[in-house]
Amino acid sequence: MGESMRALVAATYGGPEVLRIAEVARPEPGAGEVLVRVAAAGTNPADSVARAGLIRDWFGEGPYVWGWDVSGVVAAVGPGVARFAPGDQVFGMPRFPQPAGGYAEYVRAPAHELAAKPDGMDHTAAAALPLCGLTALQTLDLAGVSPGQRVLVNGAAGGVGHLAVQLAKAHGAHVIGVAQDVNHPFLKTIGADEAVDYTTTRVADAYRDIDVVIDCAGDDGLVATLRRGGVFASVPGAARGPGSLERAAEASGVRVVRHIVLPDGAGLARLAQLVESGSLSVAVSRTLPLEEGAVAHELLDTGHTRGKIVLVVRDEEAGA
Ligand SMILES: NC(=O)c1ccc[n+]([C@@H]2O[C@H](COP(=O)([O-])OP(=O)(O)OC[C@H]3O[C@@H](n4cnc5c(N)ncnc54)[C@H](OP(=O)(O)O)[C@@H]3O)[C@@H](O)[C@H]2O)c1
């Protein structure tokens, strides 16, 4: 083996306890690729779903290094890469939904799937942004959110939801955020016009004539809140084929969007611009060292985290 690195390795599918620190081979960048020295790795429910083996058809044989969201410094570039050079600070979610090996000291990534880290944003925050930010951005684009529309975001305090709220506001929409009462002050700080508690209000009965629902919590019943011609974006249901949701939507004259987020360097650059202009910020509720990835996965598995949980891999500022 050439040079080695630390990574959080899962020898098998299973619970959070399968995530163990191990020494593995350091990857080499191929043509068109960049080797990133990872400073921070964001965690997502997708990491946990993959770890548990719920989408094993998508992956080959283990062992696996999970994790897609990374922020770090370019360590080397492969042949043909002109857009980045060693020392550049970059972020991204390479290869999704194919494995990327983000929970590691180094990751190999196609150059066009990365972007320059936003100025003024540290690696921890930048690692929290790519997968959820691109999901929100691409979903709002597909839904065609436009100024003045009423947009209801379900799961508004979560990773995708809190970014969808801010991006919908940046599109000029009136935004209703659905979350537990304890998260309502947070929803106000990120610009939601209204906040509603799904534990005390039947949201499907409380709203009508909504233009777009961005559902991040899996409640197909919210189709009832839409006007004819409205759009229902099912973020958790993206990988499922058409079914009862489409039948309910057809009866109500509603369009359904099912979209699995795609790596997109240009989209990341748009997110970076919004961060730099002050229109978008990412909420990191917890940071943990890479070694404690299993703790991050236990928290993800509760389904009630606010904002994002990030694994700190290396202190770039201190050069540790
Ligand atoms: N299509 C794609 O490509 C794509 C991309 C990213 C994520 N996803 C999926 O989309 C979902 C959301 O992802 P995420 O990263 O935002 O997850 P997350 O950070 O865990 O957020 C989920 C949020 O849902 C809320 N919630 C839980 N139960 C709820 C209920 N019954 N009604 C309303 N809200 C409820 C929670 O808030 P409270 O604490 O207020 O309950 C939590 O903040 C996950 O299933 C994920 O796998 C899909």
TrEMBL record:
List residues of the Enoyl reductase (ER) domain: 14-311
One Pfam family it belongs to:
ADH_N
InterPro entries associated with the record: ADH-like_N (IPR013154), ER (IPR020843), GroES-like_sf (IPR011032), Lipid_raft_assoc_Zn_ADH (IPR052585), NAD(P)-bd_dom_sf (IPR036291), Quin_OxRdtase/zeta-crystal_CS (IPR002364)
Q: What PANTHER family does this protein map onto?
A: PROTEIN AST1-RELATED
- What is the protein's name according to its record? NADP-dependent oxidoreductase
Source species of the chain: Actinoallomurus vinaceus
